[in-house]
Each structure stands twice: as C-alpha cells, then as structure tokens.
Design a protein that fits this description.
Layout: E1 2-3, H1 7-16, E2 23-27, E3 31-33, H2 38-42, E4 52-54, H3 55-59, E5 65-69, E6 72-76, E7 81-84, E8 88-91, E9 95-97, E10 101-103, H4 121-140, H5 144-150, E11 152-156, H6 160-176, E12 190-195, H7 206-218, E13 221-225, E14 229-233, E15 236-239, E16 242-245, E17 248-251, E18 255-257, H8 260-264, E19 274-275, E20 288-290, E21 295-296, H9 309-329, E22 343-348, E23 351-355, E24 360-363, H10 364-377, H11 381-397, H12 416-421, H13 424-435
Parallel strand pairs: 1-2, 1-9, 2-5, 9-20, 11-12, 11-17, 12-13, 19-21
Antiparallel strand pairs: 3-4, 6-7, 7-8, 10-18, 14-15, 15-16, 22-23, 23-24
Helix pairs in contact: 1-9, 4-5, 10-11
C-alpha cells in the first residue's frame, strides 16, 4: 500500500507496476499535481489542467495497481491496516508513506486564512483570484490609498517558492496587465518579498542568491531581508515596526510534515518528519517505509536530505525497485543514495539560477535549462507539448494565460477590511463608485 501520489508515491507505484504484487495507491485527490509549476497557476500563466493529471490515467497500464481516492486518518501498526475515511480499515503487507507536507505557520495557524501557502490547486486558485480581484477592485475605486493597498502583494519567505511568486506577480503587473486598465496603472503595483534571514535563497550559494536579489529588484520587487513578520490580519501584514496594507498575501516561509509520525505513534523531528534508515524503512516499525517530505533521511555525510521533488522521486523509484526484488526474490532491501541533479529557482522572465554543487549557472541559459527539465518532468506528453507552446507564445508576446477569476467566495478573504481601514472620505467615495 502506498499512501500519497505525489512525486515519491507515484514513482514508487510505477516502479512496482507489472510485478506479481498487488498494489493499492491511496490519495485524497484523484490527480497527481506537478507542484513546482503551481506558482504559474497562481499567477495566471498556466491553468490547473496544465500541471495536473488523473492518477488512474497515469497508472492504468498496470493491471496490478488499484487506485483508491480517500483521506487516510490513521495507521493500525499492530493490525497492519490503514484507516481511510469513508472506507474503513484497509489491510496491507508493506506500507509506504509518501504523504508530503504542508506549510508551517509556526503556531500562528490563523494566519492561513489571510496568507495561504501554495501546495494545492485550491491554494493556487485562491491566490490567483486574490491578485486579479485586487486589480479589478482598484480599478473601481477612486481613493489612491485604497488602490495602492489593493495592488500590494506581500510574499512571506525568501525560499524558491517566495522568489518565484514575487517574480511572477511582478511580471504579471508590469507586462501582462499594463494595458488592460484605464483608472489604474498596474505597473505601480507593489510586490514585497519578506525574509527573516540575512538573505534570500539560503540553501543556494551566496553568489547565486545575490544575483537573484538584484534581479528581483530590477523587476521592481521590494526585497526585505532580516525582517520578521509579526502579525497577519485581513488588512495586511505587520513587518517589523511597519504595518503594510495589502490586497494579496502569500505564505512560503516553512513546511511541516504530514501527521504520519502521530499515526505510527513514534517520535519525529521538530517539523514532524519520520526518521528512516538507509533503506528508507521507518525505524522501530516493521514493514513501514517513508519517503519524500514525510521522512527525514540522511546522506552519506549524515546531513538531512533536502525537501525537493527530485529527492522524493529518486526515493520512490529506488524503494519500488527494492521492494519488488525483495518480495519476488527475497533480495535484501538496498540502501538509498541520493544523486544530486541540481537545485534551481526561477527569478522571472528569462532568468533563473542553478546550483549543481561544483558548478553554478545563472541567467538566460539557466532559465532555458530549467524550462527543458520541467517540461520533461511533466507526466503526460500532451501536457509537455501544450506547456511548451504556451511558454513560447507568452515569452514572445509578454502575455499571461488563464486570467479568469473563477472561485468560490469562501476561498477568497473578505476585501472589505481594506476599505474600512481607509479614511471615512475614502469609504464614502468607494461607496459612491460602487453605487454608480
């Protein structure tokens, strides 16, 4: 049984496909999501269908794999069964936990209502609606202060997700939307990237991080390092001693693992990851394995492997092959060794950074390499072709794609606090504009 059809779980299932072994894949969604491109959905460059593919479609050629859509809420280790909401208990012989992670608000979970993370299609839709609605409502307003607030975006966290989001929103405002409005100039929108550490992109070499910092500033992004977010509420964010009114806020400051450790009744590290041995088996629990963001696995130097898609994918492929050999021929479970393919982040149009360890790339060539690799990693051939064509066209025309505001009103935070935070005169003008 494999719980989770992200990069690790899906790779494990595919490696076991065709073997004389019954496989059950359980996921709460019916699709596999290519999370590294989710920020482009959030900024209207791609649609959700471009970065997602039905799990059943991906695995349908393997007759030995059954897909079950459901939410796992517990594991009975002694009885070797998993509790699935709506299905009851489902038995297993070997269990692979690939349940991923969520964003960590460090004890301030109520901030999530105002500053969503970027882990699901729903998150991306919410952020896209928030960004686009900000411009639409600014166009309707007649108060400069309110317009400025509605066109302000605050991104918390200077990791790859934060950097990519900041660059994409800046491009959207300064290029794609610049000729679409009459009462506002989208190019005047503020994009603020906040990082509590000394610099953005801490896992990257300082040379690459400095390049990314300078590039973002040339795009008009305000990069604030060494400043912590003290509070987030409907009207905006408290950054240090300054309160910034914002129409859009995005959280990307840290992750926390799924509750897998609690399900198993074992101790985890400080962010909830399950400790595993060199063969990815959960320490102290028989016939249970963990991969990806769920697990804390160590490299040859004893350092934790990073929470990257390539780590999860390599672990899944290795574990699938190792389990297949073990179950069929009794071959002992082999140790896993991570092969670093390079770490990357996009810094905007035609600019990216790549860290291969001994070698480093930045600029246009790194961006091209990033594009080729990400297109290659997309699951379906039609997605690869469609995304490639769309990227090429938008690179030539400077236009974004799916700028549709289609959302459930419950998914987008109430914009009224911004109006209430303005002066009484501004509120009166906004009311008059709305009535007309």
């Amino acid at each position: 049984m494999i719980v989770g059809a992200g990069f690790g779980g899906l790779a494990c299932a595919q490696a076991l496909g065709g073997h004389p072994i019954r496989i059950t894949v359980i996921d709460r969604h019916n699709y596999h999501l290519f999370v590294p491109l989710l920020y482009q959905v959030a900024t209207a460059a791609l649609s959700p269908a471009d970065v997602a593919e039905p799990i059943r479609k991906i695995l349908r050629r393997h007759d030995n794999i059954r897909v079950l859509m459901g939410e796992v809420s517990g594991v009975d280790v002694a009885g070797k069964r998993v509790l699935v909401e709506g299905e009851g208990f489902v038995a297993y012989d070997r269990l692979v936990l690939a349940t991923g992670s969520k964003y960590n608000y460090f004890g301030n979970e109520h901030w999530a209502a105002y500053a969503p993370g970027l882990k699901t299609v729903s998150d991306a839709r919410q952020i896209r609606a928030s960004v686009l609605l900000g411009f639409e409502r600014a166009e309707s307003s007649r108060d400069p202060e309110e317009q400025a607030a509605l066109m302000t975006s605050v991104i918390v966290g200077g990791g790859p997700t934060g950097v990519e989001m900041a660059g994409a929103i800046a491009e959207l405002a300064r290029w794609s939307l610049r000729r679409d409005f009459r009462n506002i100039d989208p190019r005047s929108a503020r994009v603020i990237l906040v990082e509590a550490g000394e610099r953005i992109l801490a896992p990257f070499p300082e040379r690459l991080a400095s390049y990314a910092h300078a590039r973002l500033e040339r795009m008009g992004v305000e990069v604030r390092t060494g400043q912590a977010v003290r509070d987030i509420r409907a009207e905006g964010a408290q950054i240090g001693e300054e309160f910034i009114k914002a129409g859009t806020m995005v959280w990307g400051a840290g992750i926390a693992a799924s509750p897998a450790a609690r399900w198993l009744g074992i101790d985890s590290d400080r962010i909830g990851r399950v400790p595993v041995g060199h063969n990815l088996a959960v320490e102290g629990v028989e016939d249970v394995f963990a991969i990806g963001d769920t697990a804390i696995a160590l490299d040859d130097q004893g350092k934790p492997l990073p929470g990257l898609a390539q780590v999860a994918k390599q672990q899944g492929e290795h574990l699938g092959k190792s389990l297949g050999a073990n179950l069929e021929r009794g071959v002992p479970m082999a140790p896993f060794r991570f092969r670093n393919r390079g770490n990357t982040a996009v810094v905007g149009r035609s600019a990216a950074i790549f860290d291969f360890g001994k070698r480093q790339l930045k600029g246009w060539f790194a961006w091209m390499l990033w594009a080729v690799i990400h297109v290659y990693l997309l699951v379906a051939f039609e997605q690869r072709l469609l995304v490639s064509v769309q990227w090429f066209w938008r690179w030539i025309t400077y236009q974004s794609g799916a700028r549709l505001i289609a959302y459930d009103s419950r998914e987008v935070r109430d914009p009224e606090p911004l109006a209430r935070a303005s002066s009484p005169e501004a509120a009166e003008k906004t009311s008059e504009a709305g009535s007309s």
